[in-house]
Structure formats: structure tokens, C-alpha cells
Amino acid sequence: MSFNNLDQLYRQVIMDHYKNPRNRGELDQEDKLIVNMNNPTCGDRIQLQLQVEDEKITDAKFTGEGCSISMSSASMMTDAIKGLSVDEAVRMSHIFSEMMQGDDYDEDNLELGDIEALQGVSKFPARIKCATLAWKAMEKGLKEEDQTKH
Amino acid sequence: MNISDIRKHFPILDQEVNGHPLVYLDSAATSQKPISVIEAIDRYYREYNSNVHRGVHTLGTKATDGYEGAREKVRRFIGAASTEEVIFTRGTTTAINMVAHSYGRANLSEGDEILLTPMEHHANLIPWQQAAKATGAVLKYVPMQPDGTICLEDVKEMITPQTKIVAMAHVSNVLGTINPIKEVAEVVHQQDAILLVDGAQSTPHLSVNVTDLGADFYAFSGHKMVGPTGIGVLYGKKELLENMEPFETGGEMIDFVDYYDASWKELPWKLEAGTPVIAGAIGLGAAIDFLNDIGMENIHAHEEELADYAQQALSEIGDLTIYGPKERAGLVTFNMGDVHPHDVATVLDAEGIAVRAGHHCAQPLMKWLGVSATARASFYLYNTKEEIDALAAGLKKTKEYFGHVF
Fold first, then answer.
1. Which of these, A27, A111, A128, B300, has the minimum number of CB atoms within 10 Å of its CB?
2. pLDDT exceeding 70 applies to what percent of chain B?
3. pTM of the predicted model, to two decimals?
């Protein structure tokens, strides 16, 4: 593997999200949803805060520490899910998961945007869990929200 | 010590990874295995696979001889007085859990103290947290010096009449600190406490004599000392082991069984329930033969040289923080500026260099260091200065690479 392959992993847009994370911080709303998630094997951790109103994600922020892949993925995800319905966000997470497995995926009318830059991670099996941490947190949070309502 | 001859015994080292010769610098996680160990395991399964301590047939006798022969090799290797004091376990983790359960929970009560250090691996930490929760005992920590060493004076100060157990790594898996076990044992025994030593990172690299050190319990793993995974050892002083109730019960460990009660075999078998890891023990025996042929003093001297060389080579790369004392075992733990250690390890891997990145199962120590993770290069008898040069070159490239993308 040469540094050219590394360039597929560390794409410019990923490093930009790592250096200048979007949505880093905490939400002010009192009824926000808070999810904590660790990657126990490596010590990365994230706290995701979501504002869900009428089945729609109206705001999302995160704090945490981890490598460039986990933090840039959190930055991109929080950007992408704002304005989506809960169902759409979960669907996007599934598409992302397929992308990480290296499977073909269908954007399914959802705008992946910057997220597509993370496609190269699928070639680095040891780093897939870094990329999926924030997404797993989001799915866990939405599932818990769903359970408390029903 | 001729390293290129030694390397010929390790077939795995002769390969390319990502288009570069493999540079394996992760032996503190697990070591590679020489042909003699691989063949000893292979021979057992091909030629005399049988259960031990039961049956009268020839293969059974051969397997028992192989298994018990390995126990005698371990006894000599660590300087135990008797094979009754050598218990085969699944590894260091199981060995420490056995002591925390069978000795700890039986002898601890409310207000008793367990003394640890902040540099402990989770395997020598969580079993004590659990024992403390179960008994009402209290955990205390010997403070560490800024360079990651401990002072004997601090140990003396921290041990009180309430201290029942002191548990400490011989060598830190992150900092490389070599703790003064013999001196600590004297202090511990003055207060009638007992000392458990986590020897996972020392037994593969130093000449260890448990009797001379004065350890009451000493635990280590086969796979870090060129042996197979799934086998480890708990050494314990006979009078302590004799008073321990078995952690596990079942086949192999009984003297006589009736409907409502049973009695136990004598040591060491009382503490080895079920069919043991026979092939693993035989493999560990072969590993000890291999290490003895080279000589533990020679191995230690070689690693000291590599550790000095690596500290020098890495300190010439700017932006690198190296953790731990100057006098250390054969490993170097570091961070490179703002670059996360996972990213460092990924770039090094692209160059064929295997290092560990993460919290190294020592999260409280990461907290003490004020970081969430580190990178670690660890050395063994088969590593060379050229490999450390490759690491230094890889780190320079990493720095350039992230300098470029940042």
C-alpha cells in the first residue's frame, strides 16, 4: 500500500471536517436527546445530542474525542441528518453501513454529500468502527426515543 | 546474540505487508512464535493427543508426561520451590481473577485495603475493584512520579495495618517502568500483607525468580513469551494456594465425590478443573526451551539496547512526546503532536510497520497521562536496530503526511 492509498482514506474533505468540525458542542434545548457511545477497544468516545420534534431531527451536535475518522464522521453525520425525518436518518445510517462494508449502495433520494468521502474507509477494515461510531450513537438514540414514546 | 539467526526461527517475520517488509513492533500485545513451538504443538496433535491424568493407555501417559514436563520447565524458569506452586491457567487475566476470588474475597473484609498503582493493566485492576465491591474493602493507589515510576518511600507510606493485598505490575505495558518488586515485597511482608505481581510484561523479557523476588503470587501469559495463546501461569506460595478454595470445580480436580459432597486433589491439580490446555502447556514448555537456549540475560540486554536506541531515534523527530522513564523495558509509548495515534498507526501500517494504538487496557493510566490514547512500539528478541530506523523513517513520513493534509 502506498501513500496514494492513504489519500483515499484521508481525503481532503475528511481532514477539513476533522480540523473544523461542524456542530461541535451542546444543544441548549432542555428536552434534547443525549446519547453516549464508546468504542471500548480503542477508547474513542462521543456524546451526541439530538433535538427531535414531530418525528423530525431539527438539530444535532456532538462532543467527544477520537481519531480523524471518527470525529470527521460525526461532523458530517450531524450536518447531514439535520432536517431529516427519524425514518430517513435511520435509512441513511443503513446506507452508510453498506458503504462501510464495501457493498453497493443506493442513495435512495438522500443527499450524502461530504459523507461519500468516507467511502475509502471500507478499504481499511481496522478503521470501519471509527467511522460508524457516531452513526451507531444516532441509531441508539432514536431507538430509545421511540421506545419511550410507545 | 545473532539476530538474523534468531529471525530464521520465526517464519511469520519473513513477509511483506502492504508492499514493505513486515516490521513487527507489537510484541507487548503478543509475541511471534518460533518453529520449535509451532512444531511441539503440531507433534502433540499428530502423535500423542490424549487426555491427561486419566486412563492407562500409552498415549495418555505420553500426554501426561508432556503436560507435567511443561510444568517442571515453568518451575525451573521462574525459580519456584515446587511444581505444586505452578498452576496452569488460561492466561494472566484468569490467574489474577483466581486470586482475587479465591484468596481476595475469602480474606478481605470491610475496611481492609488493597494497594495498587495507577499504571496497572485492566487485568490487575478490575478483579480488585470487584473484590472490593463484594467485601467492602477499599482500593488505594501508590502515587506515581512524573516520569511514571514509583518510590519505595511512597509504598511504605501507603501500606497500613489495614492493607491485606498489594497488586502491582512488574513491568508497565505502557510506560515500560520496571517496578522494584523485591524491595516492595519486603515492605509488604513487614505489614503481613501479601503481594501479587502481574508478570505479563516481565516474564518474557527479564530473568524472573519468584523466590528471590519474594512474590506471594506471580501471574503471566504464554503468548507474550513466544508461546501459544490460551495458556498462562499462576505461581503462588504453597501455604497460600493450599488455603484457597478452587475458583472452578468439576472434573480433574477432585479427590472423591459423593452425592452431596466432594473433596479436592492436592496441589496443583486442585486448582485446575476440567481438561486443561494440554497443547498450550506443551507449547509453553517449548517456548521456555527456546528462551533458555538464547538466555534471558541476553534477551534483556538486547532489548535494553533497542529501547535506548529507539528513544534516541524518536527524540530526533520533532513534535513527539515519549512517555515513561528513561530506564525502561523494551517498549516506547508516544504521541505525535495533534495527530491521533490511530492515524499514526494507519500510516505506519501502510509502510508495513505494526504498532499498537489505543488505551492499552490501561484507561486510568491514560487519565494520569492526560491523553485518551497513545501509540506504542514494543520490541523483542527478534527485533533489530534497522527496524527501529524504519519506524523513525515511518514517523517522519507520518509527520510530513499529516503536515500536508492538515
1. A111
2. 99
3. 0.94
Domain that holds residue B377: 296-401
Rounded-to-integer distance, Cα A75 and Cα A69, Å: 10
Cell of B123: 487485568
In this structure, what DSSP letter does residue B178 have?
Answer: B
Q: Are B256 and B285 in contact (CB under 8 A)?
A: no
User: What residues of chain A have any CB closer than 8 angstroms to a CB in chain B?
Assistant: 1-3, 5-6, 9-10, 12, 15, 19, 41-45, 65-69, 124, 126-127, 130
Q: Do B343 and A10 touch (CB under 8 A)?
A: yes
DSSP string, B266-306: -TTGGG--SS--HHHHHHHHHHHHHHHHH-HHHHHHHHHHH
User: What is the greatest pairwise CA distance in chain A?
Assistant: 52
What backbone torsions phi and psi does residue B360 show, to the nearest 5 degrees?
55, 35
Residue bearing cell 489519500: A7
- Are the beta carbons of A26 and A49 closer than 8 angstroms? yes
Which pLDDT tens digit goes with each residue over A90-135? 999 999 999 999 988 888 778 898 999 999 999 999 899 999 999 9
- B309 near A CB under 8 A: no
Residue spans of alpha helices (H) in chain A: 3-9, 12-19, 68-81, 86-100, 128-149
Can you list the domains of chain A with their CATH numbers? 3-149 (3.90.1010.10)
For residue A1, what pLDDT is reported?
Answer: 47
- Nearest CA-CA partner of A39 in B153, B327, B359, B243: B359
Of B277, B293, B309, which residue sits at a domain end? B293
Name the residue among B339, B382, B369 with its Cα closest to residue B357: B339
Residue of chain B whose alpha carbon sits nearest to that of A38: B372
> Which of B377, B400, B363 is closest to B25 using CA atoms?
B377
